[in-house]
Each structure stands twice: as C-alpha cells, then as structure tokens.
Design goal:
Length: 290
C-alpha cells in the first residue's frame, strides 16, 4: 500500500464573499484573531503527517508565498529587540515543504486540482479546501488517511447540513454504511437544490483521492456554474473504483462565509491565551444589552 504523503490546497478563488476586504488581499490571508486561515489548513496537514504540500494559487496570491517564506528583516528586528516569542511565531511558518503553482484561469475546483497532476504523480493524495477549518482530536485529514490504510480507496469527508443548504455543497447519495460513519456512495451531485438533493450529507472540503482522478479531470466537462467540478470527476471515479464518504463529527468553521468567519474568531479568541479572559468578560457584558 502506498503511503499518503502529499496534500493539495486550492487557493486560487477570488474571495468575492468577502469584498471589499479581498479586493487587494488574498482571502486565505484573512486572519482568525492573529493567524491567517491558510495557516490552519497547513497545520492540519502537518499534524496529519503530510510531508509535501502544493498550494494552487492565482493572481494576487503572492502574500501566501511570502507568509511561508522567511522574512529576514523582520526576524533581525525582533531578535535585536529580544522579542523571542514573536520571533518564534514568525519562524514557525518557514521551513515547511511547500510548493506553489498558479492556476492561470478560474475554471473551477476540478481544474485547480488538475494543476497538481505533475506534483502528485502516481500516489494517493489529499485535497484540503481553505474555506473549512476543522477542529477535532484526530485531525480530519488524518482520519481519512486512517481509512485509506484499511480500504486503499478514495474517501471524502461529509457532514450533515440543514436541508435548505444543499445547494451550497456537493451532496452524496449514500448507499450502505459499511462500518461506523463510513458509507458506500451511489453517486455525488454538485450543489443540488433542496428538492433534488439525495441526502443532507455534504462534502466538507477534505478529500483523499487516488491518482486516477487526474485522467478523469482532464476530460471533465464543465458542470454546475459552468465550472469544471471536482465533485463531477469524483462521481465518474466512483464508476470504476470504490469511493467512500467518512461522516465527520468534529467541529467545522465555514470561514468562507461571513458568519462562520466571525464565529471562528470568537471561539478561537476565547481560547487565545492573551485575550481569552477579557473577551469572555466583554461577551458577558455585551450579552446583557441584547
Ligand atoms: C466546494 C465544492 C463542494 C463542497 C464545498 C465544501 O464548493 O465544489 O462540492 O461541498 O467546496 O466547502 P465551493 O464552496 O468552493 O463553492
């Protein structure tokens, strides 16, 4: 069995849901308190044992590369002022095996993942979407890797969502539950309206895929939103090899959404050693005025 060593993080999206903030700033650099959202994703990959990460970027995404590069001037400045803790924080994001490639045109998530073909080669790999920040004892990516060790098959993470929201997600049509929380899937549908949705189990931005997905993506016709959809390619993959869905039960923050972003900031802030006490007090006081 091949080991899963590589992750692909698509980060080429325009971030239109956060305009005007994202007019000049990559949405992946928007912070949760003091940490850019993409750093949470990279940390989940590393905590899962991933060794090499490819970030698929696009126009205006250079700050992501800079964030994971060393900043000698800043490091010297912090060091000369004896700011050891800040220096450690700044250095934490360098020295990771990161690679970058640009998606030249915004043709969809499937097309973004296709850019990783040469990087991935003939190995199983994971795709991690930046809009979903996960928090669980065993990182979700690691859970998918554990499943792969048993099944050697592609597996996507899914979660129950409110029925009215099915049109925001890829939705699975589950077949049977082969072991606790692991489903065989009849088919996958990208963003069905609630009337046509085969279930309320939505794909939530973590995929473990076999490399055969690339041959399919190369020939995949545009689907929902006239974009080349990863979900459609996975549906085709499922016709020739098994694709499973793992139901996730941990916490998920949808930081691609304004409310989800604020929630993530509040909850992360409540755990942040510098501000947790004051923030708790503030929220208590504020709640009295509702
Ligand atoms: C993408 C996928 C969708 C998935 C979602 C999870 O959609 O196309 O299948 O459910 O991510 O966040 P997007 O949110 O990029 O429109």
């Amino acid at each position: 069995m091949q080991k899963v060593r590589k992750a692909v993080i698509p980060a080429a999206g325009l971030g239109t849901r956060f305009l005007p903030a994202t007019k000049a700033i990559a949405k992946e650099m928007l912070p949760i308190v003091d940490k850019p959202t993409i750093q949470f994703i990279v940390e989940e990959a590393l905590n899962s044992g991933i060794e090499d990460i490819l970030i698929v970027t696009g126009k205006g995404k250079r700050p992501i590369e800079d964030h994971f590069d060393s900043n000698v001037e800043l490091e010297m400045n912090l060091s000369s002022k004896g700011k050891k803790e800040l220096l450690d924080l700044v250095e934490e994001t360098t020295g990771i095996n990161l690679h970058f490639i640009r998606q030249k045109r915004p043709l969809g998530l499937g097309h973004a993942v296709l850019q990783a073909k040469a990087f991935v080669g003939n190995e199983p790999f994971v795709v991690m979407l930046g809009d979903d920040i996960m928090e669980s004892k065993v990182p979700l990516t690691k859970q998918l890797m554990n499943d792969y060790e048993k099944t050697t098959a592609s597996t996507l993470a899914v979660m129950k969502v409110p029925h009215k929201d099915t049109s925001k997600y890829g939705i699975i049509n589950p077949n049977s539950e082969i072991s606790k929380g692991l489903y065989n899937v009849k088919n996958f549908v990208e963003k069905p309206n609630p009337k046509e949705a085969p279930s309320d189990l939505a794909i939530i931005g973590r995929y473990l895929l076999t490399p055969e997905i690339f041959d399919i993506l190369e020939n995949q016709k545009p689907g929902a939103g006239n974009e080349i959809q990863l979900t459609d390619a996975i549906d085709n993959l499922n016709k020739t090899q098994r694709v499973f869905a793992r139901q996730y039960t941990g916490k998920r923050y949808d930081v691609g959404d304004k409310l989800g972003m604020v929630e993530a900031n509040i909850e992360y802030g409540l755990k942040h050693k510098e501000i947790s006490v004051s923030l708790k007090e503030y929220i208590k006081e504020l709640a009295k005025t509702f």
